[in-house]
Amino acid sequence: MSTEFVDAWRTIVPRRDDPHGMLPPLLVILTVITGLVDAFSYLTLGHVFVANMTGNVVFLGFALAGAQGFSVAASLAALASFAVGSLLGGRLIVVVSRDRGRLLAMATSVQVVLVAAATAVRIAIGSDGSDAGHYSLIVLLAITMGLQNAAIRKLAVPDLTTTVLTLTTTAIFADSSFAGGPGSKAGRRSVGILAMFAGALLGAMLILHVSLALPLVVALLLLVGVVVAARLLSRHRPGWATT
Who's near 233: CB < 8 A, 6+ residues apart? Predict the structure, then answer.
């Protein structure tokens, strides 16, 4: 059995002695959620991301240059809201800085509230929606993803950032033995890439063929699952949950 396959499998089903315990599979689910919400934001709210801030910086440049289909206001709203979410995440980290299980449970609990509110807004504004409704969705979802990003950064599980894949993709090749590196860890890193791809694909299919609100409903259900799992798995304070 190849090392890459074993590495991928152990990301989804960790060993009992894994220093990160059950965090990796939960972060894989959060990566799927990132794909879902960015598919929703890009395809239904105009050319804007709520998780990928690199894209929004580029889109802001396009909009300022006068390119059609891009909005200065939407890009700035996403960037500012993501910053607010990151700030909230930072404050949460101060409160529970030494308990990774509790941090994940609390952060995703707040995300559940925000995504539930976004789902309600999406349903309320109907198929067309107003500018106010769209900006409300951008703000709610970008705060959600900023909070997630801050929490995941503190959890510090290698190669599972849940929102950023550029460095992950680079590392697969730059660290490979072919390049003279220590080993690419392609199994785990590929799981993260495939998880975001799966979320984006599912989100796009739901939007294009079923319902505009359904990606948010799926994201909400997955978040609830992460909250429940994080609370149950860390309630006895296992070694991986504390720092």
Answer: 21, 22, 101, 241
